[in-house]
Amino acid sequence: MNQSVFRLTLPILFGYLPLGMAFGVLFATQLDYAWWAAPLMGILIYAGAGQILAVSLLAVNAGLLEVFVAMFVLNARHLFYGLSLLGQFRGAGWRKLYLIFGLTDETYSLLTSRPRGPDRGHEQEVDFRITGFNQCYWVAGCALGALLGDNVAFDSTGIEFALVALFVVLTLEQLRALGEGFPIWLGAGAAGIAMLLLPPAHQLIGAIALVTGVLLIEYRKVRSQGLQEEGRHG
């Protein structure tokens, strides 16, 4: 099972390792903490872009409350991820808390796009392993980057682009799994509208709110049509 999970998570490995190293380098070069605090942050917080944001804020002496609020806003999208997976995680027992904790953008993409069998318990075990593998990749990247930043001087400009590349790969995987482009085009359109109408600090939340609203309207429409069809056949 571990070999199949490793193959499934290879795209995440190639994204998380350099991105985690980028975070580790930033952490070691901009903050006056021991290098091992970077992987510890990856274990306890595991927020990806949120950790990079936290380093930037702490480097300019922002208060802990400011850091907390900024990270909460940036990661508020995970609330929507969790709501959509409530049924999938039902009955997962002790694994459920970790599945919720480890639900990053990339893990969510894998859990919702991979083929699933009829055995719910087995599939939840696979979900758990996928989540664990992905966090291990991230923590390893954080540790390597922090060690490099603490001991080697080099130009790391551009390494953060790994996150963008990873999102592109996962979007293509979602498109192939869904078989339709409506969610992709909806997301792109919402992002464009948010960039035109909102300040940078609110663009992500604005785009998410717009996408959520449109999807809820579409869901009500599809559900209403389904009920009408049942009424005709009933």
TrEMBL record:
Membrane-spanning intervals of the chain: 12-31, 43-74, 152-172, 184-217
Main subcellular location: membrane
Gene Ontology biological process terms, A to Z: L-valine transmembrane transport
Membrane topology: Multi-pass membrane protein
Pfam family, one: AzlC
Subcellular location: Cell membrane
GO cellular component: plasma membrane
Keyword field: Cell membrane, Membrane, Transmembrane, Transmembrane helix, Transport
PANTHER family in alphabetical order: INNER MEMBRANE PROTEIN YGAZ
Family: Belongs to the AzlC family.
Name this polypeptide is given: Putative branched-chain amino acid permease (Azaleucine resistance)
Organism for this UniProt entry: Marinobacter subterrani
